[in-house]
Every structure is written in C-alpha cells, then in structure tokens.
Design goal:
mainly beta, globular, 8 strands
C-alpha cells in the first residue's frame, strides 16, 4: 500500500491524499481521499472516489441501502481508523485500532 498525503493550501490540519493498493495480476486500486485531524489527534481519512483501470466510482458508505462492499475500499477503511504516533520529515507511523497493528510510511524524496 502506498499513501500520498498533500497538505491543504489554507490549513495544516487538512488536505488531500491518495491510497494506492496493489493487486496481484491486475492494475492497482487508487483511492482519492480527504484527510483531517480529528478528535484526540486522530487521522480522519474519508474516501471520495475509487479508480481501477478505466473505471471510477464513489465509495459506498452503506447509508443509502444499508449495504457495504467491504472489498472495494479496504485500505481507506483501515487507515481511517488509525492514530498517528510518530511524524517527522521522513517517517509517518500510524497505530491501528488493534494496538499491535502498526503502519509505517517512508517519505519518497523523488
């Protein structure tokens, strides 16, 4: 999984993000998101659109028909429940709901 975070133009507490989730044998799923700093400094990631190949769709949140496809946006759902526990110029470490689940993202300097 690759996470790209972009700081907002007017605020350092919100911005946009993309999550790239590689799939075996096919193209990856690219999720366009918005991120905000939530209560207790939680990282709130909200998926806005999902793209795979030439198709694009809006993620279902289950509110309209009480159904949700749990396979279509796994990465965005997992990351939306994480808390940042370390951040510097080159490293972002997130802790999941399960305290033993840790996600480490390294800044790509390209």
């Amino acid at each position: 999984m690759v996470l790209h975070i972009f700081r907002g133009a007017t605020s350092t507490f919100s911005g946009s993000a993309t999550i790239e989730e590689p799939l075996m044998g096919s193209s990856s799923i690219l999720t366009t998101c918005r991120w905000d700093v939530g209560a207790n400094d939680a990282l709130q990631i909200t998926a806005q659109s999902i793209m795979k190949g030439g198709r694009s769709w809006v993620p279902s949140f289950g509110k309209a028909n009480d159904e949700m496809d749990f396979d279509q946006d796994k990465a965005s759902r997992v990351l939306s429940k994480c808390y940042p526990i370390f951040l510097d110029d080159e490293l972002l470490v997130l802790r999941g709901v399960l305290r033993s689940a840790i996600f480490i993202f390294i800044r790509d300097m390209q």
